[in-house]
Amino acid sequence: MNKYRIPFNKPFHVPQAEEYVLDALRSDGQCGNHKWCKKCADLLKDKFGFKEVFLVPSGTDALEMGCILAGLKPGDEVILPSYTFSSTGNAVVMQGAKPVFCEINPDTMNIDPDQIESLITPRTRMILPIDYAGIPCDLERINPIAEKYGLTVFVDAAQSLNSKDAQGYWSGARTPIAAFSCHETKNFGCGEGGLLSVNNPDWILQANFIQEKGTDRRLVLDGVKSKYGWVTKGSSFLLSDILAAMLYAQFEAMDEITALRGKVVDAYSTLFEPFVQKGCVKVPRPPAGTILNNHAFFVIFDSPKNRQAFLAGLKEWDISAYIGYVPLHSSTMGLSLGYKAEDLPLTENLAARVVRLPLYADLGREGLSYMIDRMGYVMSKLYSC
Ligand SMILES: Cc1ncc(COP(=O)(O)O)c(C=O)c1O
Questions:
Q1: Mean pLDDT over each residue of the chain, to the nearest integer
Q2: SS3 for 181?
Q3: How many whole angstroms separate alpha carbon 350 and alpha carbon 335?
Q4: Which of 17, 24, 171, 233 is in Cβ range 3.0-4.6 Å of 163 for a Cys bridge?
Q5: Which domains occur in the chain, in start order?
Q6: What is the Cα–Cα distance from 133 to 269, expressed in whole angstroms?
Q7: Distance 130 CA to ligand 1 centre (A)
Q8: Whose CA is nearest to atom 8 of ligand 1?
Q9: Pocket lining for ligand 1, CB < 6 angstroms
């Protein structure tokens, strides 16, 4: 009998959330942008320096709201990594724009800035990188390319709240807009939720309109107008204040959660380093100076066969690991858009060899040494050392 069952992910329970949610339940303002939404937005603006923060029902919604805000139109082209979640691609196609898939860098699994310029055409409007595993994408390289060609950079920062890049910028603070997820699988979650950070002051009012079903209700709330109406394209991009109350407790515990997850990341780094030295596997190699939020840890095996053997070995010990994304360009939808698997050989090759390991804050409190011991056993058998 195994001592522990190790799931891939577990939401972290913050006791204060119960008190906050009860407060929201008893209040007369339970829809979006009430007390707890404002408290969340203020906390994030203070900590990360975002100009404005919109609490939305999911990271997927944050991506769609951002694409509307950036004025994406049918026929526009958007450059994004193929190695991402469907929501990144959906946000583009929902506006009638075309996703143009780019290769990734194996050190981070993020978009490879060296490959971006060759994909730019007169129709390109946006670069949409992601911060895979909480590792900030290379904006030091991406932003100048965007500036040269007059493109918007919109970061899918679903996984990277509370990470800092090698130049010392918080994730989401270095581009006009960035989308975050607060899904239960993320570091700070409320079941389903998300955020859009808006740093271009000229876009903030328009973002309010888009969030409020395309109406100028914000002007009525601010006492500028007496009656609101339909002014632009929008949707219902509001998180309920009840979920925001839960989320606020998570944000208050941000340092504790990050530190607990860090213990797991440190244990993985120590376990895998000898196998990295021998050339059997690769692990994340963020640029020096990056401060991670410890969202995820991935291992790239030397062959798809060894990846399978590793996963099968973990299964015997009731440890859940996960193969990562199916690249978008070779997914059913990607193929229907005209892409072929061979279009991005490096992405295909890496996606067939990568594993994402279990990582959640409670694992830093219980079960960690058991799991590391079992994982070490599986690795030693696999690479006979
Ligand atoms: C890179 C990326 N983008 C977008 C999303 C979607 O976020 P949500 O589940 O909050 O809609 C995810 C979720 O895992 C993600 O990993």
A1: 97
A2: strand
A3: 19
A4: 171
A5: 16-252 (3.40.640.10), 254-382 (3.90.1150.10)
A6: 14
A7: 10
A8: 59
A9: 58-60, 84-85, 87-88, 130, 156, 158-159, 181, 183, 194
The pair phi, psi for residue 356, each rounded to 5°, is -105, 130
Check pLDDT > 70 for residue 81. yes
Exposed / middle / buried, residue 345 (Cβ in 10 Å: 0-12, 13-18, 19+):
exposed
- Identity at 231, one-letter amino acid code: V
How many beta carbons lie within 10 A of that of residue 289, not counting itself? 10
- Write down the pLDDT at residue 95: 98
Residue with tokens 């583009």: 92
What is the token pair recorded at 108? Answer: 């981070």
Structure pTM? 0.98
Query: How many angstroms does the Cα of residue 358 sit away from the middle of ligand 1?
Result: 17
Q: Which residue among 61, 183, 186, 190 has the greatest number of ligand 1 atoms within 8 angstroms of its CB, and so is best to mutate?
A: 183
Length of the chain: 385
For β-strands 98-102 and 77-81, DSSP reports them as parallel
How far apart are alpha carbons 185 and 11 in whole angstroms? 7
Rounded to the nearest 10 degrees, how much is the dihedral formed by the CA atoms of 366, 368, 370, 371? Answer: 130
Q: How far apart are CA 123 and CA 312, in angstroms?
A: 46
Interatomic CA distance for residues 52 and 65, integer angstroms: 14
Tokens 């679903």, residue?
Answer: 158
Q: What distance in angstroms lies between residue 84's CA and the mean position of ligand 1's atoms?
A: 9
Q: How far apart are alpha carbons 128 and 216 in whole angstroms? A: 28
Which two tokens mark 90?
């959906």
> For 251-285, what is each residue's pLDDT tens digit?
999 999 999 999 999 999 999 999 999 999 999 99
Rounded Cα–Cα distance for residues 348 and 304 (Å): 11
